[in-house]
Amino acid sequence: MRHRAFTAAIIAVVVSISTLVAVKAAGAAVATADGFASVDALGQNGTTGGAAGPTVTVTTAAQLADYAGRNTPFTILVQGRITFDDMITVVANKSIIGVGSTATIDGGGLQLGSTTRPGNNVIIRNLTFVNASDDSISVTNAAHHVWIDHNDLSNGYDGLLDIKRKSTFVTVSWNHFHHHSKSTLVGHSDSWTQDVGYLKVTYHHNYFDGTDQRHPRVRFGDPVHVYNNYYRDNPLYGIASTENAGVLVEANYFRNVAHPIHVGYDRSGPGRVVERGNIYENSGAPQTAGTVADPRQWYSYTLDNPATLPTTVPAGAGVGKI
């Protein structure tokens, strides 16, 4: 009897561990959005995604488009490689989460919201995006409360991650950007002044790994908070603040970045930048100008020692790590 009881106990422990591993592999590890995505505003208290609805697993583009476009909350687990062209529209109250470390969106991208169906309260985690025919992820059409976390983005056609057209309260965390030129844009264009007053975005613990530019490139957003990111071998520039954007750049690590921070870029007018506590290894001097609102007016945060980022960010960013 003792032997049977002991065996049953061992089996129970193994089952519990296996269940925990499976849950984490599905991207459902206990975690909540921080930064601007955590703010109580615009009728939404933080970013919860599809937590209020059922969980489904998808393996095809048709299934993904179906659940992503439904008008009720869903947690959508992506399993394996899904190949399609163009963009799938994601509407409000969705979590799209990769299973394990192999879930991939190949050839297409995700667009949060349309002009008639908003993409508010959306979470995208643990997915590899590759070979997008347009943007890999487009946060647009006044989407708010969006959390983009622990993804791998590379080899797209246009931007890997664009945030624009009155979108706001967005957090971009622990993503690996690589093998691409235009990484992440905030603000549609110099002439799209409707973005003024929106585009509140937090970037933290992202790995900008050899990408050329836009880490981010910001128009109008105020404030955009860029902290504890690791920049390595970015040949054009790190961050650009333009068109009166307000960007706070703090406690990041720049390695081999000749132009870590621009005030104004190309034909765009100058923005505002406050920088503090950054490390510039074999990198140029940052440009700064003006003042920027303190993000602590909206949320609290704790800075990591930037000297640790070349180790901790590559080890923690990307897929299979939540």
UniProtKB/TrEMBL annotation:
GO molecular function ontology, one term from the record: pectate lyase activity
Keywords: Carbohydrate metabolism, Lyase, Polysaccharide degradation, Secreted, Signal
A single Gene Ontology CC term: extracellular region
Extent of the signal sequence: 1-25
Protein name, as recorded: Pectate lyase
Pectate lyase domain boundaries: 51-260
Primary residence: secreted
Lineage, opening ranks: Bacteria, Bacillati, Actinomycetota, Actinomycetes, Micromonosporales
Family: Belongs to the polysaccharide lyase 1 family.
